[in-house]
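User: Run a structure prediction on this.
Assistant: Running it now.
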Amino acid sequence: MKSIKPAIMALLMVLALAYGTVVHAGDDSDDQRVFVTVTSGEAQTRGMALVLANQMAGQGAEVRVLLCGPGGELALADHQPPKLKPRDVTPVQLLSGLIDQGATVEVCAIFLPNTGYEESDLADGIGVARPDDVAEWMLQPGVRWFSH
């Protein structure tokens, strides 16, 4: 029961941040940028983060995703997470759709060296983040962040 509360709180935070992004996306700014970190190993948390990221990309936002810790598993070419209802899609399929919309998707710089995986184990379209590049991007005015 205790593990459900953090998941619910995380979902509420995601929805609150996403609502603010959607409202803000309707202004005159063509410069909507969203930085999403996925660190959770829980399929529903990963899935909801990626559903919202896809929605933001579909509404014109430039989306950059950083996968780290258990979230980094989504980057592996052979990772097979469960399908999520109601659309029966996996977080990997949602991530692939995000890449197809032009999102930048990377594993954090410490994921590969600390898991034993290599860059060749990553799925197509997923790179390895450079901390200096990510930090520069995050510091740009108007970049919104949310983390799962």
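The radius of gyration is 15 Å.
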